[in-house]
Amino acid sequence: MNADLEATLNELGPDCRAVVGRLRAAATVAPRRPAHVRVLPPLTRRAVWLPRVGSLAAASLFAAIALSIFLQPSAPAAIPASARIYTIAYAPNEAALQEIVASQRADGSWGSDFLTRQNAAALRGVAAARVPYLRAVRYLKSRGLDPLTDAELRARGDRAAQYRPRG
After folding, report:
1. I need a labelling partner for 21 at 20 to 30 A (CA). Which of 32, 44, 54, 57 fits?
2. Which one-letter DSSP state was computed for residue 111?
3. Could you tell me if 101 and 127 are in contact, meaning their C-beta atoms sit under 8 angstroms apart?
4. Which residues are CB-neighbours of 37 under 8 A, at least 6 positions away?
C-alpha cells in the first residue's frame, strides 16, 4: 500500500487494520481441489472429432437450404389479397373503386390512417363513391388528418411501382 492509504488506515484504528490484514491474506490463498472431484482424462481422438462433424453437418444443411432458396424459379408472384388493399388505390378503375368501397369499415376508415388517407384520395371526385368519401373525410377530420393530395397519391404510386415484381 502507498503512504496515503497507510495514513488513512492509521486514522481508522486497529479494528480496520485487522480487517485489511485478513483481506490481504485471503488473496494469497490458493484454492484446493476437494477430494471428491475427479479430474477428467485428456480428450481422446474420437472426442475431438465429434464437434467437428456436428459443425460440418450444420454447415452443409445451411448451404443446402440457402441453395434451395436461391435456385427457386423467379416467376413474378401475384400480389397477395392481404397486400392488394395497400396498392389498389394507385390505379383506380371501376373494379378497384368497388373493392375500396367494399373494404371500408363502418367508422369510415380502412383500418389504419395510412390506408384511410390514401383510399379517400382515390375516391375523391368519383360521383358513385361520394358517401364513402365523405365518411372517410369525417373519420380523418376526427383524427386531425386530411386525405392525401393528388400529388402525394401519385408519388406513393410511383414509389410502389419501383418495388413491383417485373414479369
Report:
1. 32
2. S
3. no
4. none
